[in-house]
Amino acid sequence: xxxxxxxxxxxxxxxxxxxxxxxxxxxxxxxxxxxxxxxxxxxxxxxxxxxxxxxxxxxxxxxxxxxxxxxxxxxxxxxxxxxxxxxxxxxxxxxxxxxxxxxxxxxxxxxxxxxxxxxxxxxxxxxxxxxxxxxxxxxxxxxxxxxxxxxxxxxxxxxxxxxxxxxxxxxxxxxxxxxxxxxxxxxxxxxxxxxxxxxxxxxxxxxxxxxxxxxxxxxxxxxxxxxxxxxxxxxxxxxxxxxxxxxxxxxxxxxxxxxxxxxxxxxxxxxxxxxxxxxxxxxxxxxxxxxxxxxxxxxxxxxxxxxxxxxxxxxxxxxxxxxxxxxxxxxxxxxxxxxxxxxxxxxxxxxxxxxxxxxxxxxxxxxxxxxxxxxxxxxxxxxxxxxxxxxxxxxxxxxxxxxxxx
Length: 406
Ligand SMILES: *Cc1c(COP(=O)(O)O)cnc(C)c1O
What we know:
Number of strands: 14
Low-confidence stretches: 1-7
Radius of gyration: 20 Å
CATH architecture of the largest domain: 3-Layer(aba) Sandwich
CATH class of the largest domain: Alpha Beta
Distance between the termini: 44 Å
Helix content: 40-55%
Order of helices and strands: HEEHHEHEHEHEHHEHEHEHEHEEHEHHEH
Strand order of the largest sheet: 3-4-14-9-10-13
Number of domains: 2
Structural class: alpha/beta
Strand content: 15-25%
CATH topology of the largest domain: Rossmann fold
Bound molecules: pyridoxal-5'-phosphate
Largest sheet: 6 strands, mixed
Shape: globular
């Protein structure tokens, strides 16, 4: 690979991935972001931190997560070999805990006693509240009032874990409003509070830091697939909301001839306008302090995203994905609500694994790709989370109500 393709994968010191990324925030937030970046850089190179992080991932999260050959699913889709990377088996049921433990360690190192987080569906809020309990920290979770209503079980979980919910009553009262409010509130609380962002989005250094914490997924996958198959996979497929589970698994394969495929939520179809395909149908813009592809109207107003899966329901995407898309290093495609729900049922019945609706988007794409590759194909799908949380969503979707996501 030429240097021209290689070098820009890492951002410059201000977090620019080519034209994307950066720190588009109020002046008052700059000093804390610079402090976080400096502390993170220090911590990243520190063996004691790396050891403690690995130890917690092992004894608390349950890593390494298995790489599972889904034989019946493979046989139904081209007869090749399709593996699932089982992030669904992690403590709290998804990949998000890898990141919140990493950021909580950084918060502790920086002497902060309190964590804050934004959440949409509640999954990142739960993962942050979990890390806060583990480290004996306080935790404030910013959540839109509409999301609080439709994600009541996760609100209860966070409260049980000792977190304080901060209801956000602006805009559409959903994730993007919660994150805007959290970034605003952080200015006045940053002396004792660390803001834990839930994906590879937001201002520098979050996109880099969150990718690095999630990279354990890719590093394990690489070792596991070499051990079981003696070669790297043809394709790696992951769903993309903000893009953290995808960035984490992609990061370990950037220099290899492995096709990297990100699957966005196409909702009711791109043409319907009701989707969450920021790369597939968005334009370059600024959201939550970073420049990337964003769903916006002609006036630059941020549009609401739609997906049957709440975790993909974000109108932006991490800036490094924007760069990978622009440079052709990764390919991005869309899976509709209908296709994702069909894959959810299929993999449940064929494999006895109930996937998160987010992950079901990646599985649906893997089925199509498996058929194209045929018996020689070797695919890894990132099974980002488990679907116990989605049983009501699926039932409501099938009852035609599509609760709260219209
Ligand atoms: C939150 C979530 C996602 C989407 O977030 P990314 O940052 O794109 O990974 C995907 N899958 C599950 C199970 C989630 O909880």
